[in-house]
Write a structure and sequence with these properties.
The chain has 17 helices and 21 strands. With 574 residues, it is an alpha/beta fold.
Length: 574
């Protein structure tokens, strides 16, 4: 589906000459604020309206000297100044503070914009000359400014629309090679909950990737539903309004739900009686329930204790003893572990417990075994949501086996919204570990044949699983493995969180694409945002719903975009 025409012809796509835009001001270089290879200032014609993140162009010298090249810049701040020496001068000029009279001394003033250089049409980064005319960039110029004109068509992924102050629009394309590899990978999305629409943008970007990928059948997606029933109806059509449809179509995309979706929902305390999952809502089709018996979990017990401090590795040592006793890589309890085949038997029988007392296991003392039993009982029995079962029935599946069945072109939604924090950590870690092992242990013939070439994993509240603390844990190590080595395997992480500062710096540092929604000023003072100009940071406090600030590795500066609402059925809709 071809993109609808923008307000101005895009010369980079059809070969026609772009319209010459009107001059809106001229470059102003002063002794205190000179032009440089990185930024320039320009005064505005009084009737012109310019906003931060508008992209402008100005004439620059050319290597051949017989024509002008173009330097493109993005407006960061605007300031209005006058010839008044102080605010007191303006007060006196208005009849000593009278608000009802015209000033006795009219002030001469102008609005000056600061623009950061994005690129030059001939890679000439000489400072912009004083009095050089400044114009709004047209869509073709915006693409040249961002380097989009250098991205081949099959690598382009629509990521939103730039809305300029003069009414022009331009589709923003990301480079697929920096989303899924090989040049870069991973996306991080941050912003205030409810206002930043983090999940909506992640879903839009994933759908854009799938709709435009020439090898759609070689890409798979795993989505973790963490909030109510937000992602439990993504294969059902919604009712997008005319504006939403227009935005989708303007980017060459179809406003439609996800195809080929499979849902995995958690087993609940009453599922054995009513057959219903422990979910806020139930998809209309193609869903199954998953549960964890001891047999499903004995080799993943370390994930259950990810949030428990273990400075002396006592818990880790005992978990190792239990795993080996129950069969190591294959489930085969034997010897003194022969009867430890259920959660209840493990907690209340030999070898951990005998004659009413905890027992020493290997080098782990009885008192430590007692603490382990108390912690494990709290997680899998007293405070559990129902996901842990003594024996898994044929109505519930093994989650890791279901994830390992993933195929290209498929979207798998795993619901964890009503699980406890410990259970959510287990499920997320189980998914990451299964996928990582699937790709790390497969040979080249299997990747792209029996398993997808790429798999995207999206999770909200990433800070739960990769907090910025120094002490390691199994779940942090798993997330870091994906962030640092997933690109080479074909495993890509799309993570979202309210506070970027609450995520491990090595996770966000390995992301090639960063998306920022509306953010509070206190959060913006954290070092996690130092990649942004100070004035750009403050602009994040003014973003509206449906607006995002996008930083992509090939772009020299972050840009502001708008994106459409999802076209699938959302929670609360009829």
């Amino acid at each position: 589906m071809e993109p609808q025409a923008m307000h101005t012809t895009d010369a980079s796509t059809n070969g026609t000459q772009p319209r010459q835009e009107a001059i809106i001001g001229r470059v102003s270089a002063t002794a205190n604020q000179p032009s440089s290879s990185e930024q320039f200032y320009f005064w505005l014609e009084p009737s012109v309206i310019v906003n931060p993140f508008d992209i402008v162009e100005t004439d620059q010298v050319s290597a051949t000297r017989d024509r002008r090249s173009k330097t493109y810049g993005i407006v960061i701040t605007l300031e209005h100044s006058t010839d008044a020496a102080s605010h007191l001068s303006n007060f006196i000029a208005n009849d000593f503070g009278s608000v009802d009279v015209q000033p006795n001394t009219p002030r001469q003033g102008t609005t000056v914009a600061r623009a950061v250089v994005l690129s030059n049409s001939e890679d000439i980064y000489m400072p912009a000359p004083n009095d050089s005319p400044v114009r709004f960039a047209n869509p073709a110029g915006i693409h040249r400014a961002l380097g989009i004109d250098q991205i081949r068509g099959e690598w382009r992924v629509p990521a939103g629309i730039i809305q300029m102050s003069n009414g022009e629009q331009a589709v923003v394309y990301l480079d697929r090679r920096y989303l899924l590899g090989p040049e870069g990978a991973h996306v991080n999305i941050s912003g205030i909950s409810g206002l930043a629409t983090k999940t909506s943008y992640a879903m839009f970007l994933i759908q854009s990737l799938l709709q435009t990928a020439p090898d759609r059948d070689k890409i798979a997606v795993i989505l973790l539903n963490v909030k109510h029933g937000d992602l439990l109806h993504i294969d059902e059509p919604g009712e997008p309004d005319a504006e939403t449809r227009q935005m989708w179509e303007a980017m060459g995309l179809r406003a439609e739900p996800f195809p080929e979706v499979r849902y995995l929902l958690p087993w609940g305390k009453h599922s054995h009686r009513d057959g219903k999952p422990n979910s806020f809502s139930v998809p209309g089709r193609n869903w199954r329930m998953y549960a964890y018996s001891l047999q499903d979990t004995y080799d993943k017990l370390d994930l259950l204790f990810s949030q428990i401090p273990d400075p002396n590795d006592t818990i880790g040592s005992l978990i190792g003893e239990i795993r080996e006793g129950l069969g190591g890589a294959t489930w085969k309890p034997s010897g003194r572990w022969a009867n430890a085949t259920t959660w209840n038997n493990l907690l209340n029988g030999e070898p951990l417990y005998k004659n009413g007392q905890p027992q020493q296991i290997g080098d782990v003392r009885a008192v430590s075994v007692g603490r382990f039993r108390r912690l494990l009982r709290r997680i899998v029995q007293t405070r559990q949501s129902g996901i842990f079962v003594e024996q898994r029935s044929h109505h519930a599946v093994n989650l890791s086996r279901e994830i390992a069945k993933i195929r290209g072109g498929e979207v798998v939604v795993v619901d964890i919204a009503k699980l406890t924090d410990d259970e959510q950590t287990l499920v997320f870690g189980d998914i990451l570990r299964t996928i990582y092992a699937l790709y790390a242990e497969s040979d080249e013939a299997e990747i792209g044949d029996t398993i997808p070439e790429k798999v995207i994993i999206f999770v909200d509240e990433l800070n739960k699983y990769a907090p910025p603390r120094e002490s390691a844990s199994p779940i942090i190590e798993q997330v870091l493995d994906i962030a640092e080595r997933g690109r080479s395997l074909g495993v890509v992480l799309f993570g979202a969180e309210q506070f970027r500062s609450a995520v491990h710096p090595r996770v966000v540092g390995n992301c090639a694409t960063h998306v920022f929604g509306r953010t509070g000023s206190t959060e913006l003072s954290d070092a996690a945002y130092r990649m942004l100009d100070a004035d750009v940071r403050m602009s994040l406090t003014r973003l509206e719903k449906g607006e995002m600030l996008l930083a992509h590795s090939p772009f020299r500066q972050p840009i502001k975009i708008r994106f459409p609402r999802p076209a699938y059925k959302q929670e609360g809709s009829p």
